[in-house]
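My current task is to audit a protein record that another person submitted. I need someone to confirm that the token line plausibly describes how this chain folds. Take the sequence as given and treat only the tokens as open to question. This is what I was given:
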Amino acid sequence: MTNPFLSRKTAALLTATLMGLLLLFPAGDGKQSSALLSTAEAGFFSNDLELFEEVVDLVGDKYVYPPDYKKMFMASVEEMVRTLDDENIIMSDTPGGQAISRFDSSIRYQLNFNREHDLEDFKKIYYFLHEESKNKLSKEELETAAVTGLMNSLDPYSQYMDAEVFGKSMRDTEGKYGGLGMVITMKDNRLYVVKTMKNSPAERAGILPDDIFEKVNGEDISKTQITELADMLRGYPDTKVTISLRRQSDKRERTYTLTRKIISIETVEYETLEDNIGSIKITSFSKQTNDQLKEALAKSKKDKVKGFILDLRDNPGGLLDQSVKVASHFLYRNRLIVYTQGRESTSHNEYRAQYKNSLHFMPVIILINQYSASAAEIVAGALRDSGKALIVGENSYGKGTVQTIFRTSDGSGLRLTTSKYYTPSGTDITEHGIVPEVRIIKDHIPEGDSQAEKKSKTEPPQFGSGSLIKLKESEVKSFIQKKHYTKEKSADPTFLFAKMLIKNVSVANKKKTLEKARELATNIHY
């Protein structure tokens, strides 16, 4: 892959060569010329901070906001010092700027908002810290710390990824990886199988839900965290891994040697409910999502579905183009879905519905909660603004920024915020989130549900009180039980409210759906 920043190497080489030619014929002492040549060669042929400068250039050119160079370089310096973890290195403010000292050695600098000035000061700090670290960290490790600090100073979503993390990120975005095809979880400090995926190595081996992990490649994993286990199970396709699982029904340990295969991550779950209602749950937006949705919609057509519940709760988002394709299935062709705006006025892009034969006539109720973010908010906002879909649940997370992935010249990568996106009506999702027309308030946490308690403590702020109808979850649950709507004790009140509502909706018109919702809410209240 050609990188525009590689031209810096070529330019340095050419400049050094030209200077070498000039220095062969100087006026004056030959020794001075030789010294100058050595200095020039040392500067021009050094690869030090090449990655750092590449990242600074990318941020300066592509970041959604004008770069604050002083903040960026200060964060880089602080991260280098933190990574060195040397209590003898002291940072301090001085009348003329800042200083870093270690015993009798010190360096003074003054960062401002000028890129070139700050870069020159930063290089001096970098070499000072490397010298004072006594090779505790290599130059590359110190540079990585600087890049990490710079990226972390921008916003919560911009980040630096080393080559290994970058590779994993690209694999997850592709929606495919080499693995065994299992969903795993941790409870009571034990690692369990939740389910196996269709036609996966795990399913074919006969692994069952609730099997408990004991060993991987013969090593005990009783103290292993879930993310560590996931890394052990994943790997290159056609490589082998041996796992030992204990089945609770017979207390036997079973050992399997499985060959990893490309696993297509299922992001769409579909079910046809009674009364010809289609339930579509989208868990994230990967490259496979739209293809999986097409399969679900083909089934819904055979089942003569008359309306959909589109569940986007707990969906953290994903690929922008996939959200556009998903929304396109429910809108008139060429209808505006979302637009993005970068730092420059010319950095404006519009994304419109793509399909001629869409389901624009089909009523849709969309479920969101505080963890519906990014691409999920694009779909919800587009269908809401179209006047066709009603939104039910909680205010969404409010992540209205677009991250672009950049591969750097050394094989690592950046996830950089390059623009903000807006719903067709101009709603800034970062500022306001998606506000449901029917807000169902969680007013009861089941006793002992530590996960729910944790969620309640980390709940992001609610954006205003724009919901037209407000219901307590306990009210909905009580109504459902009184009407004997379901015998399930742990039934999902938000989903069942949507199910009761869409049964009485025949056209894709939010205004009419809202009238039905008011009637249902009145019955629930009284």
